[in-house]
Each structure stands twice: as C-alpha cells, then as structure tokens.
Design brief:
Shape: globular
Largest sheet: 3 strands, mixed
Strand order of the largest sheet: 1-2-3
Number of helices: 8
Radius of gyration: 20 Å
Helix content: 55-70%
Order of helices and strands: EHHEEHEEHHHHH
Number of strands: 5
C-alpha cells in the first residue's frame, strides 16, 4: 500500500482468536478483528507518511498481536519532526473515531422510547463499534510508555528541551518500564482478588466493553503489553547506547 510492503505476523491469528473468544459471537468477533486490523494499519500508515515526508525511510509495516509497527530504518533528523511522526498515528485514529461516531448517529434509526414518550436516535452499531475502537486506540497510544507513541513523544520532547538522545531515551524507557510494572501489578492484583480496575462512569456501552477487554480480570492484554513495553524499551535503550558509543568512538 502506497509502495510499502504490508506484512502480518503469525500472532495476528491469535488476535483474531482472542477477539472471537472475548465477543462470544462469530460474526461480531470477526467484524471486530477486521476493524481493529484495518484501524491499526491506517494508524501505522499515518506514522509512515509523516516519517517519509521529513526524510525518514520506512521499510515495511507489520501487523502483530499487540498492534502494529512501522519498520523505520531512518528516523526524521530533528526531534520535533519525530514528535509529529509519533503524534500522526493517534491523530489519525482520533480523526477516524470522530468521523465514525458522527456517521453512526447520522446513519442511525429513529425509535420511539415508551418511557420518555419521545423519538430517539439509535446509533448504527457497526459504525459506533468502529468509532469507539479507534477512540480507544488513539487514546491508549498516547500513554507515555515507550515504545508506544506517547513514550516517543516524551523522548522527542525531552530532546527538544536540550537532553541528548541517550539521556532522553533513558528517561522515556524508565517511565515506560514504571508504567509496565504498574500495569502488571494491577493485573496480578485483579487476577488474585477478582477486583477489577474500575471503569470511569462516563464510559458506557461498547466503550465499557473495550475497557473490560483491556483491564478486565480475564484480560491477557495487560500483562502482554507490560511485557512488550519492558522488552522493547530495553532493546531500544541498548541500541541507542551502542550507536552513541560508536559515534563517540569515531
């Protein structure tokens, strides 16, 4: 797509199975998995487009169990450009969410509510589900846990304020690892005690289902995401340390 190879890791199959299991319905499970993968692909394409526009080089895009990854072999040269690149994905997801949620109301059907004696608009469930999914995807990726988008924004912002690449990466990775430990601890506490992370009162309907999907007692996403943040953060820090040492040696 747009000249970029799109690949799917074998773990995407596990994601589809997890969606089917969590929904408990074949049709809705397949629809949710398809929408999620399409949303992740558009999210990564937004990252890639901004990276290429600022002189970066994108090798491919890979869909994975815990999201997607744009394989960028050369980042944009300036820190503020990396900030815009990192924000492009969540911005795309939030824009899609706004469009889909508006469309769900515009294309909804009118139903008579006998309790209020008024005609109400029932949102289109397919568009509403896709909208809330993109809303969750955009907001979740803004959490400052490196290597998520929010963590990359944190790193590039620290560079803009004068920290070197190594120091900024160290701080961003440590913040991300702290969040990973918190998530893993909350999941373990919920699993052992049955007390879940409370869902905000403002989140209802399918939004509450997404909250349960990520933060629920039965959810496997929290520990997996925490593990991913810890491992990938360490790997990125080791890479930056190595390249910094090589640059100083040269």
């Amino acid at each position: 797509m747009a000249g970029l190879p799109i690949r799917a890791h074998l773990s995407v199959g596990l994601l589809v199975v997890y969606m089917l299991w969590s929904m408990g319905h074949l049709g809705w499970g397949l629809y949710l998995a398809a929408v999620l993968l399409a949303s992740i692909l558009l999210h990564e394409l937004a990252h890639s487009a901004v990276a290429i526009a600022f002189g970066g080089r994108v090798v491919s895009i890979e869909l994975q169990l815990l999201g997607g990854a744009a394989m960028i072999s050369r980042l944009p040269p300036r820190a503020w450009q990396e900030t815009l690149m990192a924000l492009a994905g969540p911005a795309c997801s939030l824009a899609l969410a706004a469009a889909l949620l508006f469309g769900s109301v515009a294309l909804g059907r009118e139903v008579f509510d006998p309790w209020s004696q008024r005609v109400m608009v029932e949102a289109n469930p397919y568009l509403a589900m896709a909208g809330f999914l993109n809303l969750g995807l955009g907001c979740f990726n803004l959490i400052p846990a490196f290597p998520m988008d929010g963590g990359r924004v944190l790193r590039s912002a620290l560079e803009c304020f004068g920290l070197g690449k190594l120091r900024a990466t160290t701080v961003a990775v440590r913040v991300g690892q702290g969040i990973a430990v918190l998530w893993a601890g909350l999941w373990a506490l919920s699993f052992l005690t049955g007390v879940e992370v409370p869902c905000p009162d403002a989140v209802t309907g399918f939004g509450a289902y997404l909250w349960e999907l990520v933060f629920g007692v039965r959810s496997l996403l929290m520990p997996l995401i925490a593990y991913m943040i810890w491992v990938v953060g360490r790997r990125e820090l080791a890479y930056v340390r190595a390249t910094t040492a090589m640059g100083a040696w040269r």
